[in-house]
């Protein structure tokens, strides 16, 4: 890909960017949110048309007008949000739209299953072709996407944030599969915000910044600090910014909370001006606990106290009334209305603040939104911009703005920096510090141990639906946390 330029209204997404890929290599494509990675991949996959530039595959100039043409050329993309039909089988998903027919009008189910089994067994994926997809975990669904790409004889596979929702063991299995694909001469474009994993899996790395090509380097010839400097255009000092805040009185207490089959006798407290970290492996029950506290899910036993008063939280509305906000791990499906504007997403949680005499006061709504955009440094050409067009970091800031509008006194962050680049991560950390300095109590759930250790005053560790350990920030180490996280 040479000299690729793509313009959107008010935005130059790509400015003469370039990228090359060798046979049988894993080539990492990285950059901050908004750097142009997604746009470049959408052009390669036929979802977008470039305004300028050329694409050359096997020394021939090609025109990729649509996703079908990309597939013909052997290009497949595995997006972070999988393109699978949940109620169909693994085999039906692998050959969807390309089913074998018998007697000219009936789908040959046996042939589809046999061909799927050959692909799955060939890669040792441990998947049954007749299994329903929604019965599979995220890691297995990802393998269905890989099998689907192989069924189309893809020679170039793009993986967008493939490890974002995976645990350590699942990442190990994914890397094993990627290495097998390399042996077969298949080329992988690997997009990730988890910089540290690149040295385990990538051969080369290309950096984009502000839509422009910055550099391509052999991964063995560059270290993390230099790579981050290429990404952000500056040195990132003090990854987890220091915080001066006085931890105050108890603001939240959970006593003996249990949920059948998931949570067992959970008790803890949170203080004003404190960041309380929750660590644990995938499936440990952290998210389930937060959903109970916010009233999304019911709990069978236990009590919740806010400011030393027992409260009944049967639904999110009740939680919001008690001053609790929840920034979920899946901001796109649970935290935002993607096809609505920044303005609408921020004010929808409390329209009373912008309504006069039964009608929305648009000047008031505009000023309120602009205040949050300035305060949180949300990068956007307009308050009318639909949030689906924002980068991950800016989407997260819009979700946070909703709860700041509500004046929440307890904020739950579930995977606050998932899918966010290193520069935007630090902005989120600064915002969290600002909140606790103003007396807000923050619960942070994160699968990134350095993040939990760097941002928390105390850390609670969960395993199998129970709290198995508590550590103060100074005494916490990754080894101690993992020891508690693997307790039965």
UniProtKB/TrEMBL annotation:
Q: Which one of the record's GO molecular function terms can you name? A: ATP hydrolysis activity
A Gene Ontology BP annotation from the UniProt entry: monosaccharide transmembrane transport
Query: Where does it localize?
Result: Cell inner membrane; Cell membrane
Q: Name one GO cellular component term.
A: plasma membrane
Q: What protein name applies here?
A: ATP-binding cassette domain-containing protein
Key words of the record: ATP-binding, Cell membrane, Membrane, Nucleotide-binding, Repeat, Sugar transport, Translocase, Transport
Q: Which Pfam families match?
A: ABC_tran
The record's annotation in PROSITE patterns points to: ABC_TRANSPORTER_1 (PS00211), ABC_TRANSPORTER_2 (PS50893)
Q: Which SMART domains match?
A: AAA
InterPro entries, from UniProt? Answer: AAA+_ATPase (IPR003593), ABC_carbohydrate_import_ATPase (IPR050107), ABC_transporter-like_ATP-bd (IPR003439), ABC_transporter-like_CS (IPR017871), P-loop_NTPase (IPR027417)
Q: Which Gene3D superfamilies does the entry mention?
A: P-loop containing nucleotide triphosphate hydrolases
Question: Where's it mainly located?
Answer: membrane
UniProt superkingdom: Bacteria
Membrane topology, as annotated: Peripheral membrane protein
Domain ABC transporter residue range list:
1-235, 246-488
State the CDD domains in the record.
ABC_Carb_Monos_I, ABC_Carb_Monos_II
